[in-house]
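Deliverable D2.4 — example input (structure tokens):
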């Protein structure tokens, strides 16, 4: 499964609201993410508002494709509208369109697999 990492910026004055908004996430939104190919999805929030997301997508599915699939669901539009007020610097923009991809530079599992292959030759 491909794994992706991205960042966003939550308004530091609204961190408690952001946390409450995700505890728990609406059941319809959870199902929409799952059905769109999102798996093992976590969000991490720093005290200055830096949001880091990590997600695995279905085999053969890019993050852009998974985002496009969930964007087609009615619940996503409602979720994004509700979430927008919590993000900085532009709460008028949909949060899911402000994320910045972060390329991986190290993968322990992949490197251990390569090492095992080399050692078993």
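Example output (designed residues):
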């Amino acid at each position: 499964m491909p794994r992706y990492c991205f960042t966003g910026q939550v308004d530091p004055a609204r961190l408690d609201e952001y946390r409450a908004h995700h505890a728990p996430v609406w059941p319809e939104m959870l199902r929409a993410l799952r059905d769109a190919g999102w798996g093992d999805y976590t969000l991490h929030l720093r005290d200055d508002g830096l949001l880091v997301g990590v997600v695995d997508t279905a085999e053969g599915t890019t993050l852009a494709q998974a985002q496009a699939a969930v964007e087609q669901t009615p619940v996503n539009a409602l979720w994004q509208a509700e979430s927008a007020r919590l993000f900085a610097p532009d709460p008028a923009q949909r949060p899911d369109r402000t994320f910045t991809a972060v390329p991986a530079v190290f993968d322990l599992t992949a490197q251990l697999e390569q090492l095992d292959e080399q050692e078993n030759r």
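The chain has one domain: 3-119.
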